Amino acid sequence: MFTHTGIVVISASLVACLVTMIGILVINKYEEWGSANVVYFMSFAAGVLISVSFLHLIPKSFAMNKEAPVFLLVGFFALYLTNRFLTTYICHEYDCAS
């Protein structure tokens, strides 16, 4: 009924389920600590998702277009400078007097 690939997929799914369940139990047990550090968890998760996506897309884009490295650098610097300028003008306190 199951092929070797099917067993591997089911095993990987069960391991992912187990790791997720352990994470939920730890966060529930240490709820105050989890609430205080939720920003770090979300930042880490977003960084991992973006990194994995780019690590898969960048080699394929280099193979498809010879100017891809230039586009990659221009896009990176555009996002970096936009982030740098926006964070300069955003008030980081809740009761801003602007």
Polypeptide structure, described:
It is a single chain. With 98 residues, the protein is mainly α. The protein is 83% helix and 0% strand. The protein contains 4 helices and no strands. The protein is flat, with a radius of gyration of 21 Å.
Brief summary:
The chain has 98 residues and is mainly α.
Helical stretch tally: 4
Q: How much helix, percentage-wise, in residues?
A: over 70%
Radius of gyration: 21 Å
| Number of strand elements | 0
Beginning-to-end CA distance, first to last residue: 67 Å
Shape: flat
| Unreliable runs | none
Instruction: Characterize the main sheet.
Output: none
What string gives the helices and strands in order? HHHH
- Tell me which oligomeric state these chains represent: single chain
Secondary-structure class: mainly alpha
Q: Can you give the mean pLDDT?
A: 85
DSSP strand (E) fraction? under 5%
Write the layout of secondary structure elements.
Blueprint: H1 4-29, H2 31-36, H3 38-64, H4 68-89
What attributes characterize this protein structure?
98 residues, 0% strand, flat, mainly alpha
